[in-house]
Amino acid sequence: xxxxxxxxxxxxxxxxxxxxxxxxxxxxxxxxxxxxxxxxxxxxxxxxxxxxxxxxxxxxxxxxxxxxxxxxxxxxxxxxxxxxxxxxxxxxxxxxxxxxxxxxxxxxxxxxxxxxxxx
Amino acid sequence: xxxxxxxxxxxxxxxxxxxxxxxxxxxxxxxxxxxxxxxxxxxxxxxxxxxxxxxxxxxxxxxxxxxxxxxxxxxxxxxxxxxxxxxxxxxxxxxxxxxxxxxxxx
Lengths: 119, 106
Hints:
The structure holds two protein chains of two kinds.
Chain A: E1 3-7, E2 11-12, E3 18-25, E4 35-41, E5 48-54, E6 59-61, E7 69-73, E8 79-84, E9 93-100, E10 106-109, E11 113-117
Parallel strand pairs in A: 2-11
Antiparallel strand pairs in A: 1-3, 3-8, 4-5, 4-9, 5-6, 7-8, 9-10, 9-11
Chain B: E1 2-5, E2 8-11, E3 17-23, E4 31-36, E5 43-47, E6 51-52, E7 60-65, E8 68-73, E9 82-88, E10 96-97, E11 101-105
């Protein structure tokens, strides 16, 4: 059974850097074909895709946020880290990580973690 | 850019709901549908425009290709009242979700 769980700060000040960790089980990111993505959702709004990392370390970023995002995986193959620099109040959202399946959609999602940016 | 219509759809249990999603350019079959209930993460329903994800009841069906897509929910059940989002993944640099359609109780 695939499960994912996000962890990170609940509150940040403007200009700070967000570091979110996605810990997952039921698959390894060292296995060919495996992919993990990050999606955020501001309150009351639609989801917004942020970044994706593949088993072979290929990385993809949202074109509008690319300059602020970095995605990486750890040596265990069971964690993915997303950093977003220069956070501001419009970045307040629930941040989700999700496994991307063979159909290229976000198959299994974590529960999400709410991040608030406020001075 | 993805657009969805209507913004809100009011239906009664047992009825059929038809939700539309339009892409601003040709995305082939590279479209997914998600269901989201309050306080929960989105749940994948359909990928490849018409393939049901594992465990999704067969009252959910997807169709379309190119720029016009439809999600149909037949025999609507009480647990189907939720927000539905379409998402294109034809170009991973430009992955986008639609604004959503709320299916609520008539």
